[in-house]
């Protein structure tokens, strides 16, 4: 019976988007290479472990299929395996930031960005989180609300920006997902949440 290595990694949570978790490779099931996050339990030789994420014929569960989804209070839900950090004030933006993390996946929410963000955000070298910046922008939709590209740490980012109108000046709020390219299929549910968020 095939098992997804990701199910073994659920207990391994990391509280920062910026921390790079050391990885260890080991062989299992006929010398198939499997990568495990440091701190995860390494299987014994008797256990058969196979990473099936790239197997097109296998209908492996998604990373979050067994998770319970919880409301954040900001118009979107997150799987309960993601750890929420305390609200962070980022002087260089300046604004408050909320984050939810699972391994190298980060969902970041800027609830209120100043009027500068209405026309100037996102752009190269602007902050996605308190330490991760935009390296490239590879996609902008026609209404300029959905953006994506690569972060300065090599991960992909996918963003939804909404303009908040009605005050003396306009402001913006942003929801951004940052993830390693190899986890693209694992985060499809989160990408959809970012895409539909308002």
Tags for this entry?
mainly beta
Topology:
Elements: H1 5-9, E1 23-28, E2 32-37, E3 69-71, E4 77-79, E5 83-84, E6 88-90, E7 95-102, E8 105-113, H2 116-120, E9 134-140, E10 146-151, E11 156-164, E12 171-179, H3 188-196
Antiparallel strand pairs: 1-2, 3-4, 5-7, 6-7, 7-8, 8-12, 9-10, 10-11, 11-12
Assembly type? single chain
- Give the CA-based shape: globular
* Helix-strand topology string: HEEEEEEEEHEEEEH
Total E-strand runs: 12
* Rg over C-alpha atoms, rounded to the nearest angstrom: 18 Å
Assign a percent range to the helix content: under 10%
What share of the residues does DSSP label as strand, in percent? 35-45%
Biggest pleated-sheet summary: 8 strands, antiparallel
What's the mean pLDDT score?
76
Given the structure, what is the number of helices? Answer: 3
Give the N-to-C terminal Cα separation. 41 Å
Uncertain regions: pLDDT < 50 for 5+ in a row?
1-59
**Structural class by sheet pairing and helices:** mainly beta
Give the structure's gist in a few sentences.
The chain has 198 residues and is mainly beta. It has three helices and twelve strands.
Can you describe this structure?
With 198 residues, the chain is mostly beta strands. It has helices at 5-9, 116-120, 188-196; strands at residues 23-28, 32-37, 69-71, 77-79, 83-84, 88-90, 95-102, 105-113, 134-140, 146-151, 156-164, 171-179. The strands form 3 sheets. Strands 5, 6, 7, 8, 9, 10, 11 and 12 form an 8-stranded antiparallel sheet that branches. It is globular.
């Amino acid at each position: 019976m095939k098992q997804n290595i990701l199910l073994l990694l659920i207990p391994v949570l990391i509280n920062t988007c910026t921390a790079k978790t050391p990885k260890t490779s080991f062989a299992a099931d006929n010398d198939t290479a499997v990568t495990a996050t440091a701190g995860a339990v390494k299987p014994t030789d008797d256990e058969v472990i196979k990473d099936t994420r790239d197997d097109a014929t296998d209908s492996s569960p998604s990373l979050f299929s067994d998770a319970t989804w919880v409301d954040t209070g900001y118009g979107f839900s997150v799987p309960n395996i993601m750890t929420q950090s305390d609200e962070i004030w980022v002087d260089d933006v300046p604004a408050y930031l909320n984050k939810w993390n699972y391994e190298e996946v980060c969902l970041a929410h800027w609830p209120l960005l100043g009027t500068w963000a209405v026309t100037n955000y996102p752009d190269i070298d602007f902050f996605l989180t308190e330490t991760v910046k935009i390296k490239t922008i590879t996609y902008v939709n026609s209404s300029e609300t959905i953006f994506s590209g690569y972060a300065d740490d090599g991960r992909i980012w996918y963003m939804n920006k909404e303009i908040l109108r009605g005050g003396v000046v306009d402001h913006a709020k942003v929801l951004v997902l940052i993830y390693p390219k190899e986890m693209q299929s694992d985060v499809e549910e989160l990408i959809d949440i970012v895409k539909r968020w308002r």
